[in-house]
Backbone:
């Protein structure tokens, strides 16, 4: 292989400008992919880290009793960091005041993720502290300071021990975690002080949380090892299971970013294919000359493989470096808007970006280059000989395999990959037929139009096949952009709707029946919006159709291999309701009449029904406060767990729980300015418990804002790739246009006419492409939203105006600008080069 | 094959398939061209003379018959082997010059030697550029040269491969009379200097007259000598 000559030829091509467009599209393609990969990776890591602050850890084991120490030893052996918290309700005394508080005892290295914020005064912003209270010290939540009438340095009592008030606790990362931790104002103490309070006795209702953080791989290993070692009451979860509201947003954002990355790769690939095609078209003559000079076909292969490798290396390195810098720049510019610090970019995504670039090159650029070997030397004499086929199997095959491979590699999901791929193939086939028919039908129109139009349409039809291809490419690029835009809009709207501005941010539980009416009045008098009050009774399912739900009792054993879901036999909050709560959807069976008075019926949430093989019509036996109650399953519901409303796995028909004393719960919206109202409320009704989820909601909103920002960034990057495809596609038809318009000019067509025909041609191409794009986008988005993102599909009438309009304007402007050179070049300069 | 034959064609024919059926371009061509001979192939447009040139040079393959270049039967070879023979024995000058427009004048001349990995490619190219009086145009691109200059570069390139046979397809077809005459002088001077066998296709009677022998072709067949004046 004549490497030296190949490099010389490459250098000479570069110097004369022949390579600029190919190299440019390669570099932009690689840098787009690298930027996306790097950004996605960093944002993803940042989102996980930020989300992990919900748990103060990457993984948590929550349990009602201490867990087997073997588990902790395993975590240590795997090099995971760990911390521990212990939460319980207890009265806190100060002089003559007392307040039922939610005490959280933390180990010295708590929190593993997120930060603790404390201050020396209540109700201010505070500062970050790196660990919780020292032994002998407690930190009080702001509201407790006036409520207990204490200040920093004073003494409070918990159980039989005395503690000094060390700081005011402003914010703890995992405040949202569960009822017991959020019930009542928070008191934080050191874990080592718990025994001396003597509050925690065997059988006390306490919540142990073991926090773990570390490398993702180790965590997964730990997770799979630990599952079978957990006791019945313990469960292990990460942020996705631990905080449904964030988990769903994260899942969808991940899929969106993935989709964005995939589309970016495809667009970049198309741009490369177009440029490589043009490069080889322009090199057929070169190769014919080289062959007359004695270059053999294998020598030609060798030359172009070296050229390809050199181009690939340069483009990949330059693209990788540019991608890295662009990504740094973007994060730098955006840093004021990104609420968390992004983890540093890893080497892996850089590597992925570069490999992606090379695979793109291999599958899109190599085949047209390799086809050069087939150029016949006699072409130097007989220019009329057809170029080697531009539509052979090698090109399509390589592009198909390359794209499929990359999609699979990215998504690690063969089903998704094949579905998207088949969909795209069908779309391309259908769209090309439509594009071709549209082109042909414009012939009739063209006949009656003025000369500029006739010229333009005649031009479009003369290059029918080429223009069908171009419409397809334009259409594909616009379609991908529309898809991304639509999905993004649907996601962001859904997230905004998930937590409306006035979403309830406090839950009140343990409300005694006689307090229901006065509390409702008190809330209304203070102008506080509240939800209906739901009764709440603890109970568990003990039998399904007469078989016990407890494993090992010879009954309905639970299958540990089943899909995850709540166990039937655990204690749950039960309620009854006449009206189906908002955001609940009946999946099977029927919801009862509001005034239903028949035998007890029950409605189950989908996951608990699936996990425990419960169907409509099954009879469940519950144990509630030591007594049993049987009820037939009337319906299975889907519940929007992420809506921050009171939600229940199990809802009874009205009257079914009348024999059981119950307490009530409600939720209400309390703006920060009215926070002190809680003191009044709790002073008047000391037996009730208020769960404050306002901090949690603020955190969810912050994360969703971040996710939104991330997907918008990716959208912008994909648009850059789409623009590149448009440019490459226009460039690919440039030579032909140069010739055609030079001839027209010499025949007397004015510059204006030529210009006009160009504008009309591009606008018409853009219009047709936009129309096709809309059709394709609508169909694809229907599939994506219903199948992948689990959103409700909405028809987008505005798209049918937007698509063709965007196509016409965008292609019109970009096309005309890119071909201005055609008009400006004197015709003789073109004709001499023919 | 006669030992002094540089080119020999035996019963050479070429037909192509068209929409209207098979079209015969050449049939039953037998000819011999001796070493150092200068031969003009003349004939009307469409008579098949350019096709004959491309078959003799191994740029195209015949549908029947044989072609020998020196000791090689190129019609029995594949494209890979034919390319080797071209590299070793053949140089070309074309009507449309066929310079690579991304290469400078001297780089175009260096190309044949570079393909053979000749370490002295540049030096030889400089000498030839001087010989065609273009030393001052070494680093110009083809588009910066006049038609006559481009053809002189093409001639320099043709001789750069140390070819034994030079094929020229209408070498003056794109040039005015005066420039054309200068280019032809150069071509014949160099041909004499290098002792090359020259085969050229032309319409130009004066050019044909400078060759030692003319072969006339009409409707794809050789016109016997003395049977009529070339068109």
Residues:
């Amino acid at each position: 292989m004549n490497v030296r000559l190949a490099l010389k030829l490459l250098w000479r091509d570069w110097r004369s400008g022949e390579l600029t467009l190919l190299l440019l599209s390669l570099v932009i393609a690689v840098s787009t992919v690298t930027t996306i990969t790097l950004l996605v990776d960093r944002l993803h890591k940042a989102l996980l880290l930020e989300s992990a602050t919900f748990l103060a850890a990457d993984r948590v084991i929550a349990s009602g009793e201490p867990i087997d120490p073997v588990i902790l030893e395993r975590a240590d052996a795997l090099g995971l960091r760990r911390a521990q918290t212990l939460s319980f309700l207890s009265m806190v005394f100060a002089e003559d005041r007392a307040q039922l508080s939610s005490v959280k005892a933390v180990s010295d290295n708590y929190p593993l993720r997120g930060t603790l914020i404390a201050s020396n005064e209540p109700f201010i912003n505070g500062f970050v502290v790196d660990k919780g209270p020292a032994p002998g010290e407690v930190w009080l939540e702001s509201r407790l300071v006036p409520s207990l009438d204490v200040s920093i340095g004073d003494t409070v009592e918990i159980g039989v021990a005395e503690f000094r008030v060390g700081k005011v606790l402003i914010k703890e990362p995992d405040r949202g975690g569960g009822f017991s931790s959020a019930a009542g104002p928070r008191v934080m103490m050191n874990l080592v002080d718990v025994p001396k309070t003597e509050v925690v006795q065997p059988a006390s209702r306490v919540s142990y949380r073991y926090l773990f953080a570390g490398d993702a791989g180790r965590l997964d290993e730990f997770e799979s090892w630990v599952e079978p070692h957990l006791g019945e009451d313990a469960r292990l979860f990460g942020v996705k299971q631990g905080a449904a509201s964030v988990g769903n947003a994260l899942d969808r954002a991940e899929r969106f970013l993935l989709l964005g990355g995939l589309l970016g790769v495809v667009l970049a690939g198309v741009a490369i294919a177009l440029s490589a095609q043009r490069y080889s078209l322009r090199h057929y003559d070169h190769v014919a000359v080289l062959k007359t000079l004695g270059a053999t076909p294998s020598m030609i292969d060798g030359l172009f493989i070296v050229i390809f490798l050199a181009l690939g290396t340069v483009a990949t390195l330059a693209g990788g470096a540019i991608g890295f810098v662009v990504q740094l720049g973007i994060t730098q510019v955006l840093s004021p808007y990104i609420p968390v610090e992004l983890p540093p970019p890893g080497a892996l995504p850089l590597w992925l970006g570069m490999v992606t670039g090379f695979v793109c090159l291999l599958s899109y650029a190599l085949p047209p280059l390799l086809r050069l070997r087939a150029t016949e030397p006699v072409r130097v004499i007989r220019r009329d000989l057809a170029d080697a086929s531009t539509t052979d199997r090698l090109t399509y095959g390589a592009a198909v395999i390359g794209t499929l491979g990359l999609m699979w590699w990215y998504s690690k999901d063969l089903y998704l990959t094949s579905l998207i791929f088949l969909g795209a193939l069908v779309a391309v086939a259908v769209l090309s037929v439509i594009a071709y028919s549209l082109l042909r039908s414009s012939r009739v129109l063209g006949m009656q139009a003025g000369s500029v139009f006739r010229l333009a349409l005649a031009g479009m039809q003369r290059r029918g096949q080429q223009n069908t291809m171009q419409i397809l490419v334009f259409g594909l690029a616009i379609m991908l952009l529309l898809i991304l835009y639509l999905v993004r809009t649907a996601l962001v709207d859904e997230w905004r709707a998930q937590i409306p501005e006035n979403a309830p941010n406090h839950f009140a539980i343990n409300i005694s029946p006689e307090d229901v009416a006065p509390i409702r009045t008190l809330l209304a008098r203070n102008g506080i919006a509240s939800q209906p009050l739901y009764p709440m009774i603890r109970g568990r399912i003990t039998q399904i159709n007469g078989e016990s739900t407890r494993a090992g009792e010879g009954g309905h054993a639970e299958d540990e291999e089943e899909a995850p879901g709540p166990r039937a036999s655990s204690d749950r909050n039960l309620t009854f309701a006449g009206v189906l709560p908002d955001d609940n959807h009946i999946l099977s069976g029927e919801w009862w009449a509001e005034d239903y008075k028949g035998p007890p019926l029950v409605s189950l949430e989908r996951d608990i029904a699936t996990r425990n093989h419960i169907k409509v019509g099954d009879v469940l036996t519950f144990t509630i406060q030591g007594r049993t109650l049987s009820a037939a399953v009337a319906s299975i519901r889907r519940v929007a767990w992420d809506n921050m409303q009171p939600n229940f796995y199990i809802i009874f028909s009205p009257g079914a729980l009348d024999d059981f004393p119950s307490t009530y719960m409600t939720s209400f919206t309390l703006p920060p300015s009215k926070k002190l109202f809680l003191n009044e409320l709790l002073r008047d009704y000391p037996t009730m418990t208020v769960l404050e989820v306002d901090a949690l909601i603020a955190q969810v909103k912050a994360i969703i804002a971040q996710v939104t920002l991330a997907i918008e960034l990716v959208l912008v990057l994909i648009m850059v790739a789409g623009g590149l495809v448009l440019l490459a596609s226009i460039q690919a038809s440039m030579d032909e246009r140069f010739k055609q318009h030079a001839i027209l000019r010499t025949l007397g067509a004015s510059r204006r006419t030529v210009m006009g025909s160009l504008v009309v041609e591009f606008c018409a191409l853009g219009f047709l492409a936009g129309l096709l794009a809309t059709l394709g986008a609508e169909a694809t988005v229907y599939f994506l939203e219903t199948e992948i993102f689990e959103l409700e599909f909405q028809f987008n009438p505005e798209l049918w105006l937007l698509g063709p309009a965007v196509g016409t304007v965008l292609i019109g402007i970009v096309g005309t600008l890119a071909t201005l050179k055609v008009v400006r070049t004197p015709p003789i300069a073109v004709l001499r080069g023919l | 094959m006669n030992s002094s034959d540089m080119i020999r064609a035996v019963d050479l024919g070429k037909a192509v398939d068209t929409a209207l059926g098979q079209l015969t371009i050449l049939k039953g061509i037998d000819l011999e061209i001796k070493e150092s001979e200068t031969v003009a192939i003349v004939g009307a447009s469409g008579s098949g003379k350019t096709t004959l040139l491309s078959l003799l040079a191994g740029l195209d393959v015949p549908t029947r018959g044989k072609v020998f270049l020196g000791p090689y039967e190129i019609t029995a070879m594949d494209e890979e082997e034919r390319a080797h023979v071209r590299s070793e024995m053949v140089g070309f000058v074309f009507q449309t010059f066929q310079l690579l427009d991304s290469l400078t004048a001297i780089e175009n001349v260096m190309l044949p030697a570079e393909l053979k990995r000749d370490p002295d490619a540049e030096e030889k190219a400089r000498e030839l550029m001087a010989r065609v009086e273009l030393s001052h145009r070494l680093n110009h691109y083809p588009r910066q040269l006049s038609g006559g200059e481009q053809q002189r570069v093409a001639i320099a390139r043709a001789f750069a491969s140390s070819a034994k046979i030079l094929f020229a397809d209408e070498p003056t077809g794109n040039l005015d009379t005066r420039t054309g005459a200068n280019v032809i002088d150069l071509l014949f001077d160099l041909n004499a200097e290098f002792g090359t066998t020259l085969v050229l296709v032309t319409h130009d009677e004066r050019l044909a007259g400078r060759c030692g022998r003319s072969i006339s072709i009409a409707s794809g067949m050789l016109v016997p000598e003395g049977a009529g004046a070339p068109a």
